[in-house]
Amino acid sequence: MSIAIEQDLKEILGEINQKLEKLDNRLNSLEIGQARLEEKVDGLEKDIESLKDDTKEIKGSQKAQIWTLIGILGTALLGTVIRYIILPFPQS
Question: What residue ranges carry the coiled-coil annotation (predicted)?
Answer without folding.
Answer: 6-61
